[in-house]
Amino acid sequence: MSLEANQLTIQYVGQVGVILRKNDIAIAIDPYLTDSVDQLGGSPDGFWVRRYAPPVKPETLADLNLVLCTHEHMDHMDPGTLRAIAEASPSCRFGAPRVCLPALEAMGIDPSRLQALGVQEAWSFADELTIQPIPAWHEERVQDKEGWDHYLGYMLQWDNLCLYHAGDTLLKDELVEVLSGYTIDVGFLPINGRDIFRNRLGVVGNMNALEAADLAAYLHFDIVVPVHFDMYPNNSEGISPFVDRLYQKHLGQKFHIFQPGETLVYRKVN
Question: Which residues form a coiled coil (predicted)?
Answer without folding.
Answer: none
